[in-house]
From TrEMBL:
InterPro entries: Peptidoglycan-bd-like, PGBD-like_sf, PGBDSf. SUPFAM superfamilies: PGBD-like. Residues 14-70 form the Peptidoglycan binding-like domain. Pfam families: PG_binding_1 (PF01471). This is Putative peptidoglycan-binding domain-containing protein.
Length: 99
């Protein structure tokens, strides 16, 4: 799989990689029943996305800073691939595109 995230994402960023992060957060949140890990998948890293990311970081016991860097992306991709991809047959993140 091509790694789907190539930059650190912070509040204010936009683009395809933000959409993929939002998509993964929502899917992982649904799979692992993290009710506070939900945000609109619109490609805009706003306060709602930051809150969902911080919920995921707290749940996965990593630094809660609202920054989507190497550690957060590694953990999110690992959780996404282990659950939603393996069990539900979700698309790999590098194949997820904003509609």
């Amino acid at each position: 799989m091509t790694y789907p995230f190539t930059r650190t994402l912070t509040e204010g960023n936009t683009g395809q990689d933000v959409y993929r992060m939002q998509y993964a957060l929502n899917t992982v949140g649904r799979y692992y029943l993290i009710s506070s890990c939900h945000c609109e998948a619109d490609g805009i890293f706003g306060p709602e996305t930051k809150s969902a990311l911080m919920s995921f970081q707290s749940w996965d016991d990593i630094t809660v800073d609202g920054i989507f860097g190497n550690i957060s992306s590694d953990h999110l991709v690992k959780r996404y691939n282990a659950g939603p991809v393996a069990v539900w047959g979700e698309k790999p993140l590098d194949q997820v595109f904003q509609s």
